Amino acid sequence: MLFSSLTFLYFFLPAVLLCYFVLPMRMKNAVLLIFSLLFYAWGEPKYVFLMVFTIILGWFSGLMIEDSLGRKAAKFWLILSVGIVLFLLGLFKYADFFIANFSAATGLSLPLLRLALPVGISFYSFQMISYLADVYRGSVPAQRSIIKLGCYISMFPQLIAGPIVRYADINDRLENRSLSMSSAAEGAFRFIIGLGKKVIIANSMGALCSAFSAASEESILFYWLYAIGFTLQIYYDFSGYSDMAIGLGKILGFEFMENFNYPYISRSITEFWHRWHMSLGSWFRDYLYIPLGGNRVSKPRWFFNIFVVWFCTGFWHGANWNFMVWGLYFALLLVLEKLWLLKRLERSEILGRIYTMLLVVIGFVIFNAADMPEAFRQIGGMFGLGNAPLFNAESLYQLRNYGLLLIIAIVGCCPIVKLCARAIGRLGISALLQPLCALGLLLVCTAYLVDGSFNPFLYFRF
After folding, report:
1. Are residues 172 and 187 in the same domain?
2. pLDDT at 319 over 90
3. Among 236, 338, 345, 431, which one is most buried in terms of CB atoms within 10 A?
4. Same domain, residue pair 168 and 219
5. 139 and 211 together in one domain
6. What is the pTM of this model?
7. Are residues 191 and 119 in the same domain?
8. Is residue 310 assigned to a domain?
9. Is the pLDDT of residue 385 over 90?
10. In which domain, by residue range, is 15 found?
11. Does 389 lie in the same domain as 408?
């Protein structure tokens, strides 16, 4: 079930909020767990059993790890439980990838498993691993209540696409959280802003990308329109979802970490990755990069650690070689910046941003390509390496169609909108203007959803 669907907005969410706020505090975690499992089962009924198994595994393993801290048994339970979680992730997400590549390398024709990918498995698997690792480290206590742990793992606001929530960050809220009208109003406004980003901008950019894929004739202009369009689509799609998740969390009494901080204003690739998908970046930093030794090792080992982390980051996104190339592409850029480029970039406000966005756009072309030959073809087309003309009737038509929205989307990637909102707030009229804007935006989004059927969500495939 998509957040940006009429079913969720006008049926599921009102039912959740009614039950959640009517019932007493001691029952709120159970209500949230039940509705989260229903939310998950809506699209994939059979995989709700996998979710329940994961919850039971995490609950039991956490208790066993805590009860045996200081002994070898604690490491045994950690390795066993994390191994099971990774096995399930590998089985559903990567088995066919390995089988296909093994068959190609050996000349065999092994049958593929063709298992459907459980929605959100990459996200809730990482949440479970972080919980078990933190219990093993002694930084959080094991959760004795299976309902509370199940609520943490399956919580529907961030179940499908994050942000990746650490158990340590919401442990206290699971035990005791306060609800208020002001927090709920703030959360509702944040949710509607995210909904607008997704429905109005991301979906429109997705339609532009679909028009490129369906076009019979290509041009250099169209290649660039596609590349920029997808770069904007993935930002508004994913950051919009994160806004909706954070907003729903506020309504329910939880504080989720920010996931995006205007990444497209960065002056370097290093800064970009401090601003983009921050919950995933911090997860890999704390649970892979630092355990490998981080930067407190020799320089060759440091660079090795960077490449390992970014290879895993790419592989986490999907079972395809282009994701791994995408990860290693950014690893190479980060190493080059750490060696000599970063200080030069920081001196330049304009050149640094041009350099960053050019490389980010190229990176997302690799990310979205069906395979590497397709990625090379599209990147070559962007720079005139082919027979495509500079422009044609189709590309000019799409530029006229989407030009204004592209400008609006680019401006929306900058903090100027937030600065304008703060300026309005200082005038003392935001108390009236904010709810009116939210209501108007909700009505516009509803009209878009009623009128159109194009409503994909990119991160379902991860």
Report:
1. no
2. no
3. 236
4. no
5. no
6. 0.91
7. no
8. no
9. no
10. 6-177
11. yes
Does 124 share its domain with 242? no
Please identify, among 158, 177, 196, the residue that sits at the C-terminal boundary of a domain: 177
Give the Cβ contact number of residue 195 at 10 Å: 27
**CA 442 – CA 334 distance, rounded (Å):** 40
Closest CA to 461 of 93, 96, 212: 93
pLDDT at residue 118, rounded to an integer: 86
Nearest CA to 96 among 113, 73, 83, 71?
113
Angle of CA points 247, 253, 258, to nearest 5°: 45
Residue 110 lies in a domain: yes
Helices (H), 201-320: 203-214, 220-252, 269-275, 278-284, 299-317
CA-to-CA dists, residue 273 to 8, 11, 262, 309, 348, angstroms? 32, 37, 11, 13, 18
Which residue's entry shows tokens 């592209």? 406
129 with 247, same domain?
Answer: no
Which tokens go with 104?
């190609």
- Nearest CA to 232 among 397, 2, 413, 365? 413
pLDDT digits (tens, 9 = 90+) for 420-449: 777 766 666 666 778 888 899 899 999 888
Question: What's CA 456's distance to the chain center, in Å?
Answer: 14
Q: How far apart are CA 269 and CA 427, in angstroms?
A: 37
What does the alpha-carbon distance between residue 331 and residue 310 come to, in Å, rounded to a whole number?
Answer: 6
pLDDT band at 462 (very low <50, low <70, confident <90, very high): low
Using CA atoms, how far apart are residues 189 and 162, in angstroms rounded to an integer? Answer: 19
- Count of structural domains within the chain: 2
Q: Is the four-CA dihedral 168, 172, 175, 178 of positive or negative sign?
A: negative
Cα–Cα distance for residue pair 287/87, rounded to 1 Å: 18
Residue that is last in its domain, among 150, 177, 204 = 177
- The answer to whether residue 291 sits within a structural domain is no
More confident residue, 269 or 345: 269
Biggest CA pair distance of the chain: 71
Contacts by residues 258-261 (CB-CB < 8 Å, ≥ 24 positions apart): 258/163, 259/162, 259/163, 260/235
| Strands (DSSP E) found in 325-446 | none
Q: How far is CA 274 from the centre of its chain?
A: 14
**Looking at the predicted structure, is the pLDDT value of residue 162 above 80?**
no
Q: Alpha carbon of 60 to those of 3, 57, 130, 132: distances in Å? A: 32, 5, 15, 10
Between 162 and 322, residue with greater pLDDT: 322
C-alpha distances out from residue 142 to 59, 61, 137, 169, Å: 8, 9, 11, 14
Catalytic residue positions?
A: 317
Specify whether 447 is located in the same domain as 353.
yes
Over residues 149-158, the pLDDT tens digits come to 999 999 888 8
Task: Answer yes or no: is pLDDT of 163 > 90.
Answer: no
Q: Does the residue 90 lie in any domain?
A: yes
